[in-house]
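Final paragraph of the annual report: two paired records, presented back to back.
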Amino acid sequence: MIRSLQTTSQAVFRVEVIQSEESFPKSTALDLDVRRQLERSGNKVHPWQVDETLKELHRRKYYPRASRLQEEQFSVSRWPQVLRAAVEGKADLAVSSFGAALFYLQRNLIDGEILSMGIVKAYVPPESIVAGNRTAVAMTQLASQQDRLESGVDDGAHTSAGGTNELSRANGQAPMEFTHHESINTEDKINHMSLDGTTLHNLEILTNAVDHKVAGSLWSKINHTRTPHGARLLRAWLLRPLFRKSEIERRVDAVEELVSGGAAVALLEATKALADCGDIERLLSRVHSMSGNTLLDANEDESGQVHPNDRAVLYEAGKYNIRKVKDFQKVLKGLHSAAKIPELFAGIEIQSGLLCKIVRHTDQGGCFPSMEEELDWFVANFDCEQASKGLFEPSKGVDQVYDNACDTVESILSELNDYKEDMCSNMLSPRSFARSQWKYINTKPESKDKYLIELPASAAVPDDFILKAKRGSGQKQINKYRTGEVEQLVQQLELAFDIQKERKAKGMQLIFAKFDSMRTIWAAAAQTTAILDAIGALAHTASKAGYVRPRILECPQEDAPSVRVVQGRHPSVENTANSTEFVPNDLYLGADSSHGTASRVLLLSGPNMGGKSTLLRQTCLITIMAQIGSFVPAEECELTPVDRIFTRLGASDRILLGQSTFFVEVSAAVKKKKMTCTRYRG
């Protein structure tokens, strides 16, 4: 026994030694330059340290360089705000983790396409905030500033043309400072209600507990969105309900204004436009990937990385071209539909600050970009039919290199004609006969021996006409000549043809790159349409009978929190086939001015199938709906913001099937006993 244990320990020790000496895999790239970029010979496998990550980020130049006024060679001033805060704040673990993700993206050859978009967001666990971690609190405030607009809560913050917030440092505000002795009020650092996985499952937020499908869940009751990116945003709101009263009220104001009046009529028309938008958000990412962030006058971008199409052999290029053209058509169509939305709300007086921002143009104080001229340019300069056949040719002004090559071709062709006129007028005889019989052959770009001169053998030519070939005989003999001057012109012409061919092959990529260079405009349209779609879905829910606007109460530290619901109903049960006898419930928990001071703890008891779980769950769901900015199924509802919801572990009931918790637990026990007996008999 001792010997076997020693052997086992030695075997384990050997495995550990082998793993510690594991090296990075060798690159299989055929191109030597690409292989040299990917190879990391001599480096053992280990998590990237901070210095390695920063060195790689600077070397590959994913983000814009610092301005020339700054003397620092490795400045991070123009990097994404969250990443810059992590570097300057010495968040070493976060930067090292970012490096691990960077290495994975590099191995898959998609690092440039993803990182060049500059989308970096911060995730800070709630426990770090409660513990008062300085870096965690600072990153939380930074992340909160960054996602205010996309969450639909930003009010007075200055916004750029892209519709994203300029953060405190860009606005000239002093950076946040925290000391170890600073007393931190936890509630001041909370921005969202926390919902863990067990709570989401037991409350059936996204799926039901029976077959784990969407039907019957809270998500199925409020998801009336028309766009995929709007649905994703509403889902994010549902998973992270708001906590601050001002932010909740601001979103509810927008929802309430869309329920009735002129804004409601405009919303009906806007939903039709939203239905034609498609998934603008993902289509923009696809166009960015297809463009490769390529400059208009070079084969490589600033980082020196070649576009993936240039380092791959596409055996089905025709099929991929068709898919690219279709994706580009979809995004142009979606943006054209989105551009109609501000016109639908024009002339309507809007009171809600949030709604005003997402349906007004930037010159009217809103965030919706004016993009009609830009879209018309792409429609006029991109022939979808020719591009799908692989015959796309860049129009004037798209690519300066291609335009110069076209001008060179026209100039050389003009010189060839001038040369013909000069020779026929001064050097050849008889002149009229030579002018009528002179002919250039092999004039196509793919022809060999371009622009040979054909003349009858009877025509007298100068001594510098070199005979290259002839056809026919006797009086019908035709000679083919080449001169030194024509030879030089043909060499220049072939070089211009090569440039034309190369840039023409990149024509679609150049169009995509030009489109991607305006990504901030398109992203702003995607954000505003997503917010309008999500708020419109909540307005559709609010328009149902029996739904009321919740009243959000202030909760100072000296006061007790409270929840008061009058004639509340379960949003998922009330419209089911088994809900004909559903009885609304009242609930008073915590401080209540109208009914005296109630208890902060409620002990609920009753018989089986008495509705205990229904009451508990409907209270939680009403709270969640109230804090995402939705109306709630009740006659009256007022509550102080809730920061977290806890639910029990273990078995749960199946409300949609009318099965109580006791029934589910007994059924599970019986099923388990039958399985045990079957195994024993077997």
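The closing record of the year follows.
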Amino acid sequence: MLGEMEVAIAAPETQPAGPPPVLRLERLSKTFGGTRALRDVTLEIAPGEVHALVGQNGCGKSTLIKTLAGYHAPDPGALAWLDGERFELSGVGDRHDRLRFVHQDLGLVTELSAVDNLALSRGYARTRLGSIDWAQQERTARALIGRFGMDIDVHRPLKEATPVECTVVAIAAALEGWTGGGVLVLDEPTAVLPHTEVERLLEIVREVRRGGTSVLYVSHRMNEIFDIADRVTVLRGGRVIGTRDVAHLTPQALATMMVGEDVDLSVRREAPSTARPAALEARDVRAGVLRGVSLAVGEGEVLGIAGLPGSGRETLPYALAGAWPGPVSGAMRLPAQSDAWTDLAEDDTARIPLVPANRTTEGVIGAFSVKENLTLPMLGRLRGRAALARRREDDLVDGWIDRLGIRAAGSDAPITTLSGGNQQKVVMARCLALGSQVLALCEPTAGVDVGTRMQLYDLVAEQARAGVGVLVSSSDEGDLIGMCTRVLVLRHGVVATELTGDQITEPNLLHAMEGS
């Protein structure tokens, strides 16, 4: 059945009409040890088009981009043309200057300003005496950023900027010195952006295209693909499954190409049939912008937390989990553990397992293995008489790898060798292994593919059926619709609206968040 489906999907590819492609790749393969990450990939990008590249985590997208960027050298036999001229994909940091990149981590120094970050990309302007011409550097920064309709304080450290402002600075740095043409590669540019900022970023992509630059756009968000892209190429298992005109596709058909089997994108969680006792209660929680939030999460309930940036949505799970870096006040209790209320101002210990919003900076330790990342918070439980009980640790890790379908070379493999979706599963496994009756998830599907997204939805539903109370804070309305039975919408640090059951729709969520 699957083989028949793959034959049907891999029908003759759509060829762009008009002038020859601005970028063409043929027979691009890449092998790491005994693993072939890319297999004879052919890709064409037409002049002035937005070409989406999609596929499940681990399908080869990152390897393809890193090969184009010169981070990896391809296997022998790869061919590449840019603007009709042959060029070598040689690796070791070598790349064609008309290929520019904005990687998912943006590559910015957030302690520095936009002026400095743009100068680091192409060098500082100099006076005739050789000193830095700061006035010219500021004018250059304002002109580059102003092209995208953004008014940014170019002297403020980027750690104080919004995600979309940082993304704009990264795009401006990538395009500095360009007069048009070539290809700009955007790798998951909206992975952590709320919906209010996604459209601003997409308009910037349109502006880039209007300037004559082609865009290779990598994203897991289906709505973005259908909003911005002209054509889409699907990778699966390192191979090109097909290239299609987006106008001739549906989200369901694209998901099927990516996963290799039918995927139900209309999933919705059913509420528990009867009321259940509370797994978590909180009252008058204040932290950051929060101005007194009270809530209860029932056993087996999946409670969503929604809101615009700055509403307190991002703060609440951290405050409840004991992970907020600033002052916290209010009280909470976990009835399964104790009837006593905990004063949050006096007790800042870890209270409930938290899957953090930023997997890279908060969720995993890059220098550690899969095993070390998974067992880090439970080493005390795994101690033998004098040292760590290695066999018990291995059994625990292997069990969770199997249960969550984590794809890794082994438990001792560096966590950085895993795809983003599999790293997210490791973080989830670490929290679930603690056996808590409450779990807090922040941006649980950021940067994961549609197949992994559905697996995470199923995993959360499984935990809810086992009686675990789950708190989900997300800027992705699809997560709230697909996982939650009730959603609290925050505005200005307080609960403004509560939605339940069939009320949880994208229009209702957006209206509630915006107060319209």
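Residues 1-9+21-98+183-201+213-262 form a domain with the Rossmann fold fold (CATH 3.40.50.300). This concludes the annual technical report; the extension proposal builds directly on these records.
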